[in-house]
């Protein structure tokens, strides 16, 4: 993991201020979705070598959930964005 | 009914750090514990953050506290900020009284950056963290709000329950520079 | 004057003599000495015993690569083992002792290992101690550990302070030698924020050992002038005594500063060591080069050392390492060092050059013989070198000398740049491993980049820093390069290094600290461990505390030579942090003892202390466990009394630590409806409701209350333990799952002091401090309202009970909490009020069958704990809805909450005990469930427990076996309803005013 994450609200901060929440590409299925979809959402996780998109919460700072795109191999952080803004396709 | 005559008619207010030992002499680097500032938290209602920011923009003592959130502070305990702001902002924002939940500390002196560097992983150089800049940071595992209010002046807002631990940490951080501690007022 | 101290010169303060002891003997040195230089000055060449063979060893280097001279410094609480004498700054009263010897350094029984060395070949441990395996643990390992020799740390508490600090800069320069100083100066003059760190206590690096003049003045004066200018620049921070030990992601560097390790008694105002986390936009690795030992027979005898170190002792410390020094070399640098030694007044008796024709013959001092094409095959002497044996063109010759300086060429110190996985790059031109290209943020400069002359290093520092300055958008000043007197010419193509001098008559060591000799590497190769990484594990080469700073490259070169390959093909072992060892104290920083984690205090903490509370740590909180009174013989007596008081009269408990979150907005109700498994949409204003949150997998996450304070205004509470997790859970739901919902919320846990007043007299007591009407009509069960206290203080009142008694939770602004609690106590005195703590709270809820995290352990569903009726399956969606419908979560044989009463009413039940069918064989195979909570019930007069038992609700009246294997207990208990007290809930609203 990188030493620093650049929070879009707070600027670069040490990784100790953040808590990982896991794969950010998973979308919560509709209540009536199939058992398989729900099983996959709750239990199945990829462990990619290379680019990974995760939710990290800036718990020690602004407490926002962030979508962090990072490379598990090189530890490079490729992009960081506010999760709510991403979910709403732009401005919150 | 119980004997009410022995009961107080008003309930004392107590600062969480009221029992600490303060320094006899004020050193060049000093930590001031504010006696009882009026503190309000302002959370913009959905879609109203621009309007709230515009109103708060004209006020003193406003600290940015993350997206769509602000902390407003007045040293005067009689300022009644929460009520005044609630009235001013109406349905634009939710206003919470934080005067009992937060302690406010002001760190001043030539070494305050070096003192803070022992706990805060944030570049506090004035070119990077300028006058009026602020945000929540971790300091020895305590989340606190830090803002620059002067050249050699920083303001800290921290949760009441952590006040003793944070003060202990700040004293350790300042020991090298003989940091003094005092209650204001 | 000491035996080996030169009459003049050196950067020592001859006006400040310092006395110290080594192995109990008194010695003296000067300010500016290291322990090693002072010992050498006093003629002490034997400083340690080697790890495996216990061979006598002397100092080899003058720096941090030292493999041999490991000592234990200080005594009592400040005893610190394994310090390199070359890095220990001398101070008055310093005490040092040698290690890995018994009974003394000169007479060491462990040296028998050396005689037995034929049995102790490489891989010996693996081969010999493999069988039988039990012997390894019981016999071999303790024996090996006792014999294997590093110092012992003190077991006493470290009296000193340590800390960590952050630093930020445009340019971090690692190493304050010629390249580093010039780089720092260039960037500093350009206005960049510069940090210059060096592991030495004096900045200057090789300039402090250089014997030529720079700009007409001694090199160390030149360095001092640069340091003076840098120290005066406000944008430059100098960090002497600071080792940059690690390069981490995002150009964050770790450094350890030895702030006060050089002082006899450290001040308590400062840490003794400080870890710096340096965030650098750019960094330069100006770490210089390490001289390479030559591998020849007897090369480990005390008195044999690196030629550059011999020169450093002479030039910087004014110490002649011997009266008759022989220099052994395979490169021009050895010749230059020999000449420099002579310039500093050290008698060089011979220069033994392995090369037949020297590319660049420096003039030799008078009286020194030059033997070209010669090899050393052995050294003479026992505890120190007395001579050596050379072979030249088949002719053997003995030479008398009392010190041997070896110069095998130079290895750039590339370690930091390789810590992200990049490998050093072998250069045929340099005949050395050079740093890999790791991008523009971190570059090597000077000797670390493979440059070999002083002029090149100075110029490279300027050039690399100028590029950084430009890169960061500033303009660099012109920094003129100084004139060097008698500059050496760059030696174009270096001669092939001599990895092993042939014909060794005794062990030719490669790794001095771990006693790996050339023969061990040959054996490794024969047995198929020829790759550098394999050979390392097989022979332990480069595995000692010096991490092979002297041995790594030689091992690679030797293996390559034996295989007929290039060192590039053999490779070099991986470099990882830390560059040199870092103390545990520094790594812990301030995070030790009670300061390791912050603690949280309730606004009623002062009140509880005044009431004589005994406290317990609950997470970060300090919470009152119970309030003992005089005459109570143990905690149980206090708890029993507190419980009885609540059941019969009234008690006051601090519940401020519960998480409290306020929510606002038009969608707040919908948001809560999706968070809790039970319905929330129709909760009336002014009412509270018990709420249960599930995880998405259907298990219970947390429980608490939801109060509707206004139309779009809610307050929820969480358990103390889960407060932070629930807050994150809400934030995740609001920001990630449903960002379109118009809801805002904030934790208000810190703002409110909250106290629970419970017992039949609760209303009367509370009415004394609250102005509003508290009658059952005005404040019915589950009321949640604003109240006004006497004097006009505004608070919040909740009619919530977890004990089954008439109970209120009163919240007031935290600053008033203590005064309000004291007023309630005063008002309750006539009613026999008592404060009660966590223990009584727990008994009260067990008696009433209320679950907490003992039952809600992440594996239980609402139905398991008897709350299945709360699941609102008719709701379209809530977190956990879908997966809570799975068969496994609704199966009839799941563990279900029941009560237990021991058949023998004296038996205490312990939480964690297993439940088995009566008569079943005690085995987890027969497991039927477990006890989750247990206590003595003062209300019933016997022990009770809550348990999760398979199909438990159908088994009321059955007897089960309570089996606690840990405590060797087996006894019978009866399965009963989990509600032990007041099952009909009559006490919540007493009929008669009590
Ligand atoms: Zn942030």
User: Please, what is the CATH homologous superfamily of chain B?
Assistant: Probable tRNA modification gtpase trme, domain 1
Strand order of the largest sheet of chain B: 7-8-9-6-1-10
Largest sheet properties of chain B: 6 strands, mixed
Low-confidence stretches of chain B: none
Shape of chain A: globular
Structural write-up:
The complex is a heterotrimer of chains A (92), B (185) and C (994). With 92 residues, chain A is of the alpha+beta class. Chain A has a single domain, classed as Folate-binding fold (2-Layer Sandwich). Chain A is built from two helices and six strands; from the N terminus they run βββαβββα. In chain A, the strands form two sheets. A four-stranded antiparallel β-sheet of chain A has the order 3-4-5-6. In chain A, strands 1-2 form a two-stranded antiparallel ribbon. In chain A, strand 1 (4-7) and strand 2 form a beta hairpin. Chain A is globular, with a radius of gyration of 14 Å. The relative contact order of chain A is 0.24. The model of chain A has no long low-confidence stretch (mean pLDDT 94). With 185 residues, chain B is of the alpha+beta class. Chain B has helices at 49-57, 81-89, 112-116, 163-174; strands at 30-33, 38-44, 62-64, 69-74, 93-97, 102-108, 134-139, 142-150, 153-159, 180-183. In chain B, strands 7-8-9-6-1-10 form a six-stranded mixed β-sheet, with helices on one face. Chain C is of the alpha+beta class and 994 residues long. Chain C has seven domains: 1-159, Ubiquitin-like (UB roll); 162-289 and 413-472, FAD/NAD(P)-binding domain, CATH 3.50.50; 295-407, FAD/NAD(P)-binding domain (3-Layer(bba) Sandwich); 508-570; 604-657 and 751-844, Probable tRNA modification gtpase trme, domain 1 (Gyrase A, domain 2); 659-747, Aminomethyltransferase beta-barrel domains (Alpha-Beta Plaits, 2-Layer Sandwich); 845-872 and 880-976, Aminomethyltransferase beta-barrel domains (Elongation Factor Tu (Ef-tu), domain 3). Helix content of chain C is 21%, strand content 27%. In chain C, a hairpin with a 6-residue loop joins strand 3 and strand 4. In chain C, helix 10 (518-526) crosses helix 12 (552-563) and helix 16 packs across helix 21. The longest helix of chain C is centred in the middle third of the chain and has 18 residues, at 454-471. The chains are: A alpha+beta (92), B alpha+beta (185), C alpha+beta (994). Chains A and B meet through strand 2 of A and strand 7 of B. Zinc ion is lined by residues 7, 9-10, 58, 61-62, 64 of chain A. The site of zinc ion (ZN) has 7 residues of chain A, from loops.
